[in-house]
């Protein structure tokens, strides 16, 4: 397996975990329409990215890693605050995985996929930090934290 | 049964210093880069022996410009300092990293600031003018000033993205992080 395929497979595993996490996050934010919308759009973006990764990995004849039935989450979601905290954690951690894909990319479409993903996750992390009242809401070099 | 995923057990990212060392070796070899294969790869055939400016120089110049604009805005409107200081600090971090990559950090001499000019402006970045955000004197009213800063960050994002997509993969991580940072700045300036 080439380095880029290995890193893309790791990114896919992470996107699977993120989609699972957003199911829990959405349940925690269900009482607030605006916050639920935030989670719903984020989950949709991760599903789209997962689908793009499935196509990309299958194109090379690689068997993409499958989603697991459940994942152990770092935050217990008990209320909207902890749900938002988990969503920030998810987006932050995904920036690291996508940041690590970039230096392995040779093909233009791989580079674009990883770059767009890094930017999207960074913006969502910021957006969710702002909604959670978490400061600072930005990091100097997303993906390196 | 819940399973652990590495998403929540993050591997330490490769430091830019290691990525930069690979770049140094490339320059020592006379800038011999990989030739582009067909039309699909993005490995740049850059050469230190040509007169072509390094694309990172424009990204560095725009980082200097963005830092200066944020600093000036916070001075003019002290109430904005809480919002703008982290953004200013981030641009300083970008300046340091870019200067190190360009090999100019030893001299301590930075280029003069230049507003970012995106290779292909996004509709939003260029919505207020045909050439992207204004390099005219900064607005004097805080709301308009924040809007101007936001346009500059969006243009800066486009600039860093364009260089990331076309330059060597060894620089892609740094450029991608800078593009992402600028995008997140635009988010908080909304």
Notes on the structure:
The complex is a heterodimer of chains A (145) and B (190). Chain A is an all-alpha fold and 145 residues long. Chain A has helices at residues 3-29, 33-59, 80-101, 108-132. The model of chain A has no long low-confidence stretch (mean pLDDT 96). Chain B has 190 residues and is mainly alpha-helical. In chain B, 54% of the residues lie in helices and 0% in strands. Chain B has five helices and no strands. Chain B has helices at residues 16-28, 55-76, 81-102, 142-166, 169-188. In chain B, helix 2 runs antiparallel to helix 4 and helix 3 runs antiparallel to helix 5. The longest helix of chain B is centred in the last third of the chain and has 25 residues, at 142-166. Mean pLDDT of chain B is 76; it is low at 10-15, 17-40, 44-48 and 125-132. At the A-B interface, helix 1, helix 3 and helix 4 of A face helix 3, helix 4 and helix 5 of B.
Total count of strands of chain A: 0
Helix/strand-derived category of chain A reads: mainly alpha
The number of helical segments of chain A is 4
Major beta sheet summary of chain A: none
Tell me what portion of residues of chain B adopts beta-strand conformation. Answer: under 5%
- The low-confidence parts of chain A are none
Shape of chain A: globular
Unreliable segments of 5+ consecutive residues of chain B: 10-15, 17-40, 44-48, 125-132
Rounded to the nearest angstrom, the radius of gyration of chain A is 15 Å
List the helices and strands of chain A in order. HHHH
Distance between the termini of chain B: 42 Å
- Assembly type of the shown chains? heterodimer
Shape of chain B: globular
User: Residue-averaged pLDDT of chain A, rounded?
Assistant: 96
| Helix/strand/pairing category of chain B | mainly alpha
Helix fraction of chain B, binned, reads 40-55%
Biggest interface, residues from each chain = A-B, 52 and 45 residues
Provide the gyration radius of chain B in Å: 18 Å
- The helix count of chain B comes to 5
